[in-house]
Amino acid sequence: MNEDLVRFLKARLDEEADLARRCDGDGCGTWSARGHTVDFCQVNLSGFHPAIALHVALHDPVRALREIDAKRRILARHALSPAAGDPELPWDDRDDCQFDGEPWPCDDLLDLASPYADHPDFPRRS
Ligand SMILES: [Zn+2]
Q1: For a disulfide at 31, which of 60, 76, 93, 98, Cβ 3.0-4.6 Å?
Q2: How far is the CA of 100 from the centre of ligand 1 (A)?
Q3: How far apart are CA 76 and CA 87, in angstroms?
Q4: Residue 110 C-alpha to ligand 1 middle, in angstroms?
């Protein structure tokens, strides 16, 4: 899997950030829900089930971009620390996570990737 998982995750986060930016073209504010209506700042749309309206409003582009930034920081922390080329060869001679020392990809990285498991480009373990 090596760096395939990192490249895959960065591509998904880039796609999501691009989409969020396109949904907030004028930076008008925060999406909100009231009953069956979602206020998208530029327009109100109604007819949603109230729970769905709340769910849609929760995916406000500004909030989505903050979440993407947080995921990018997590991804950066959990970088690959390869055994090969390390002047102090790890005692167990394995690639591991530079943040937690777990075998790489670590559980945190796999958790970041898990929502995309059904994506056609999801890297499979070999
Ligand atoms: Zn880690």
Answers
A1: 60
A2: 5
A3: 22
A4: 9
